[in-house]
């Protein structure tokens, strides 16, 4: 029995002369939350569709929950909760009718379970789907993925359209799924939710894996833009030579800089003055991607 929930080897998908995947090697362990990151067109959605046998690979091997999706796709999909990046459904039904129907297809989901998730996400189950906003339709998608407590959750941009409060509720749902022993494979552009939920992160570019790292390691190397307000003016030169600190500017008593990696040296230097406030912007995924792309001229994969 394979210990991994998802495994691919040399996976290739071509579309005519274009290549969606160019030899992807991917391994997701059972019981972990895996963040799958990459810019638009990198191959994230293609990978997910191959895992579910919604499209077929040109070459390579895929195994999901010890099953070949091509041979046993129907049986596999009963064990998986899937949220597509372009979740669309018949708008004539109410949210309750749709979720009940989908639950019955999976062998039955208790009405209380659907109501519980709807309450958590503040969704009115009695409204017709065509009358729902994009954010509320996304809530329906999240509920249908989680409601049958699947072994594996495959989520493509799951918080698209959700407000920040509900994004935090989604984070709590993912953490609870991991505690319950479920595996979560999640593509995302939201760095904060990846940092709060994922055990490991894989970054994909042009159909191949650039790197796989634990979130703690990724966070240490992430680029941040920092703004510190001091009680009195400070000299830029005091901070410009610090490890990981660059692009230092000082306007009066406000210092702005770029921080690459750990903040230890910067924080210790700032502590020599009276700090009024400190703002560290969330790492920018595009900067993170470009940083890896610049460093990685050849494939580098860590299992």
From TrEMBL:
Name any Gene Ontology BP term: response to antibiotic
**GO CC annotations?**
plasma membrane
Q: Which domain of life is it from?
A: Bacteria
Matches recorded under PROSITE patterns:
ABC_TRANSPORTER_1, ABC_TRANSPORTER_2
Protein known as: ABC-2 type transport system ATP-binding protein
Q: Which family does it belong to?
A: Belongs to the ABC transporter superfamily.
The residue ranges of the ABC transporter domain are 6-231
Per the record, the coiled-coil ranges are: none
State the Gene Ontology terms under molecular function: ATP binding; ATP hydrolysis activity
* Keyword Nucleotide-binding (UniProt): yes
Membrane topology term = Peripheral membrane protein
The record's principal subcellular location, in a coarse class, is membrane
Tell me the InterPro entries matching this sequence. Answer: AAA+_ATPase, ABC_transporter-like_ATP-bd, ABC_transporter-like_CS, ABC_transporter_ATP-binding, P-loop_NTPase
Keywords from the UniProt entry: Antibiotic resistance, ATP-binding, Nucleotide-binding, Transport
Its subcellular locations are: Cell membrane
Known Pfam families for this protein?
ABC_tran
| Sequence intervals crossing the membrane | none
